[in-house]
Amino acid sequence: MPGITIEEILSEKEAGLDLELLSGEGGLRRQVRVPRIQKPGLALAGYVENLHADRLQVLGSTELTYLAQLPAEKVEQNLRKLFAVEICGFIITKGQQVPELLVKLAEERRIPLLRTHHQSSTFISLVTNFLEERLLPSTTIHGVLVDVLGVGVLLLGKSGIGKSECALDLVLRGHRLVADDVVKVRKKLPAVLFGEGMDLLHYHMEIRGLGIINIKHLFGVAAIRERKKIDLALELVAWEDGRAYDRLGLEEETHSILDIEIPLLKIPVRPGRNITSIVEVAARNQLLKEMGYNSAVEFQDRLEKRMAEVAWQHAHRIIGDDLE
């Protein structure tokens, strides 16, 4: 099961969690593996049997007020029982003052204790959305992901087939690069795939004979995207003489990533074929299909209708007016 460390959560800026570390720095490598959080109200009263150690524990004003009303001996007894469980981390909400014993035990047990200025309900919503996205299944794929006319096109194929060169030509035509060489794919419920570049490779592209280039610096921020939904996979394959290729577009294939099927087209590559134009047209055609229009199916229907009309006319000439 995928996990995320408390250190990664603490360093997250875009989600607006606004976290600061109060104690327990030695436990920042602890991992959260469940997007749901828990409010350990009963645990503060000494009942820890249903405490989930792999969930973030949120302490709001209700929990801290309850602790403040308990005798000092009872507070220490209950907190030590709570910290005996290997909790992944505690979050104090509303920027509240934290009891010294809580800070001390967090440091002793190496359990991160963090604080946010958000109210409990707001923070729970923010952190749940963040964790749901980060803890979904992910994988990496050798390929290139580009945004072509709003369609996320994943270019696949053997090394050296020309994926990066095709992507560079698409950028020159005004389209946007998401990731080159290695695409990190995340699954988002219910059945959507998002692709993004690896941190080290962001905005960079390898062109044989030219080397590593930075698309963002060369063409500006309008030429790149952080991430994109994957709508279509195009596999570039070497042209083989004598092999039959789909010429009508009626053979619909799919490519499976994280148990999600996406449409797949196999594009044969040989000198003289403008692969970039084919990719652009494939993206436009995918947009039409998503709107319910399929050119190949429409052509087949028209062809069958015309064949039926010709057959009827031919039979009418032979049999005459008696044909029903």
From TrEMBL:
Gene: hprK
Organism listed in the record: Geothermobacter ehrlichii
Entries under Pfam families matching the protein: Hpr_kinase_C, Hpr_kinase_N
EC number per UniProt: 2.7.11.-, 2.7.4.-
Residues binding ATP: G157, K158, S159, G160, I161, G162, K163, S164
Domain spans labelled HPr kinase/phosphorylase C-terminal: 134-302
Function as written in the Swiss-Prot or TrEMBL entry: Catalyzes the ATP- as well as the pyrophosphate-dependent phosphorylation of a specific serine residue in HPr, a phosphocarrier protein of the phosphoenolpyruvate-dependent sugar phosphotransferase system (PTS). HprK/P also catalyzes the pyrophosphate-producing, inorganic phosphate-dependent dephosphorylation (phosphorolysis) of seryl-phosphorylated HPr (P-Ser-HPr).
Record-listed Mg(2+) binding positions: S164, E206
Protein name: HPr kinase/phosphorylase
A Gene Ontology biological process term: regulation of carbohydrate metabolic process
Subunit structure: Homohexamer.
Top-level division of the source organism's lineage: Bacteria
Note: Both phosphorylation and phosphorolysis are carried out by the same active site and suggest a common mechanism for both reactions.
Entry keyword annotation includes Magnesium: yes
Active-site residues from the entry: H142, K163, D181, R247
Entry domain remark: The Walker A ATP-binding motif also binds Pi and PPi.
